[in-house]
Amino acid sequence: MTAPRTATTFAPPVMEARRWIEGIAFPDDRPLINVSQAAPVDPPIKALRQVMADAALHDDSAHLYGPVLGLPDLRAELAMQWSAGYGGEITPAQVCITSGCNQAFAAAISTLTSEGDEVILPTPWYFNHKMWLDMSGVDAVPLPTGAGLLPDPLRAAALITPRTRAIALVSPNNPGGVEYPPALLRAFLDLARARGIALILDETYRDFHAEYGAPHDLFSDPDWSDTLIHLYSFSKAYRLTGHRVGALIASEARLAEVEKFLDTVAICPSQIGQHAALWGMRNLGDWLAGERREILDRRAAIAEGFPVLEVQGWRLLGLGAYFAYLEHPFDMPSNALAPKLVEEAGILLLPGTMFMPDDDMSGARHLRVAFANLDRAGIGALFTRLKGLRF
User: Fold this and answer.
1) pLDDT tens figures, 57-72
2) Is pLDDT of 143 > 80?
3) Which top CATH class is 47-283?
């Protein structure tokens, strides 16, 4: 009897890590520093919560099934703002709203692949992408990244086979934090188009990119929709993690297939969450800019403070958006080190082994720090605890 695909897929890493803190008491003078998950811990701002409350109280349609591809006004707003921001032409008919960005990825893969097909993922990879491919019977083909954690299009080209259906990129990257340069993204679009496969670009963290202006020019290509599938999340921008609102932008023909998937899985995205995302897009531009500045300041604090660890053999491999990706100096694998950090230092983070294939030993040297929920003082405390480690 063949094992079901869920049984052969690894356990959700964040949930596994949370089990490491069960039964452990953290003293008041050394509380837990939780840098395991890349999600805002604060609720939406009060004005946005009021919009959501008003929708719940006064808009009866907010409690009913909505359009499978999302609220028309939200689709139109995203199309308008993305067209202006990226310098391209995106129509509302090329936009759909999903129940979070993970669902957008799942929907895209379902329209692209069949049993035994392949999708190329740069490593370290975003573990939920790998999990969905495993549960879909699709082979994840690892594309190791080199210095700076940047994938190489030439190396990717060598991995393409007749079974390859897509290359999936995340920029700014999870888990590495690195921002892929525009020329690199263009090279991947050109490669995917030339080889007749899709380029999936997950830009969940685009609102916290270090550079001003568009992070790439892919939408300026008049034929972008023949190759590009763009994914986005409203969760990080407006603190809507619990309301599950994401987006997928692709050709109209692909969205006709996506609609089948979404209608079967969730029927429609959260109505109240969509109203919140729409109001946020129209009214919280200045507030979001302030959130971005704060995240960039915390990123700067990581870079400024890291020398105290560097002298002890630590290396900063990637930094950006919500993440710092580190190489540790200890003579033990990261999947053994990470649980010990809970007990010895009151730090909860994820080992690099959770982002690598089992046969890639480099993950044993790596740790991911999701620093976005630490202020400068918290980052200082994190470095102090790491600096004091002796194994």
Assistant:
1) 999 999 999 999 999 9
2) yes
3) alpha beta
